[in-house]
Design a protein that fits this description.
Two copies of one chain form a homodimer. By secondary structure, the first copy, chain A, is α+β, with helices and mostly antiparallel strands. The first copy, chain A, has a single domain (about 5-145), classed as NADH Oxidase (3-Layer(aba) Sandwich). Chain A contains seven helices and five strands. In chain A, strands 1-2-4-3 form a four-stranded antiparallel beta sheet, sandwiched between helices. In chain A, helix 1 (about 5-10) packs across helix 5 (about 85-110) and helix 2 (about 25-35) packs antiparallel against helix 5 (about 85-110). The termini of chain A are far apart. Chains A and B meet through helix 1, helix 2, strand 1, helix 5 and helix 7 of A and helix 1, helix 2, strand 1, helix 5 and helix 7 of B. Strand 1 (about 45-50) of chain A pairs parallel with strand 5 (about 165-170) of chain B.
Chain lengths: ~170, ~170
């Protein structure tokens, strides 16, 4: 798909077809995250890719808003190291945001929808994912083919007016 | 450009040709940021796009590592609201990270390189950019055509080994 179409077709998808993502496509999504930039190239992340249905069901219990994880074809857990300061924590999250969008656009390019989830129950997340101490699961990013029809470029996304958001030269 | 090529061609570029970015391409880069997802669709950002050479030179003084801003064709300042808590601050930065990568991939698709910069001198940034109180300039993202030759998909990016970063099922 053309890049601009993939960027415009990406949207949050919570209802998925019962259709697996091919290993090739999942590898590409993960590679997109792996490639993304980070502060001083520190790559402050690990990605745990979950595709087992029973494990996905368990993982969907880490937050009240994570129900879509249970029916996703794959969910990537974003694992972050313990931060040294609030500034460091914010910097890590910024980099995780970059990795997330990279994976989401790579997915949209293959017709695959995606959705974020917070993680409230860190103990449950650790039991399921097995990440070591001094790490936590920052977010989940789920992937799957949209049940509501294929991804298409969105002409009028639900966003604040452009001229409120974009300033030229000065605010 | 194909999406996967744009994702693989994106790289940090600090040396730019003396060549402007067309209004159409800059608008597309900004639209890519505007479209990006955010927690509860709050869109906790404003983007100030700077293209005036003298203003870019001034802006390059906000951090010792921001020299490339001076010679960029355009720099987009990411303005964030005051956070209510450290968790909120991290969430805002995560969303800014998503917007950043979206803009960078849209730029790479048009052959345009990009580079981040921190902002140390918030007072100077405010004088130059004019954003209101209770907002700060979180980061700068610069854009321009690479002096070192066109962007091409990078086959072996400088990253940690994939199997250190990506885990399957469990860490």
């Amino acid at each position: 798909m053309e890049t601009w179409d993939a960027i415009r077709a990406r949207r949050n998808v919570r209802d998925y077809l019962d259709r697996p993502i091919s290993d090739e496509d999942l590898d590409r999504i993960l590679e997109a995250g792996w490639r993304s930039p980070s502060s001083r190239n520190e790559q402050p992340w690990a990605f745990v890719a979950v595709t087992d249905r029973e494990q996905l069901r368990e993982l969907s219990k880490v937050w009240r808003g994570a129900g879509h994880v249970a029916t996703s074809a794959a969910t990537v857990a974003l694992i972050e190291p313990e931060a040294e300061s609030p500034e460091h924590a914010a910097s890590i999250r910024y980099d995780l945001g970059q990795a997330t969008l990279s994976m989401m656009v790579a997915a949209a390019d293959r017709g695959i929808g995606s959705c974020h989830s917070s993680v409230a129950d860190q103990d449950l997340a650790r039991t399921i994912l097995g990440h070591p101490e001094r790490h936590r699961c920052a977010l989940l990013v789920s992937f799957g083919y949209p049940a509501g029809g294929p991804l298409r470029p969105i002409i009028h996304p639900d966003r604040r007016p452009m001229d409120e958001v974009v300033h030229r030269g000065r605010w």
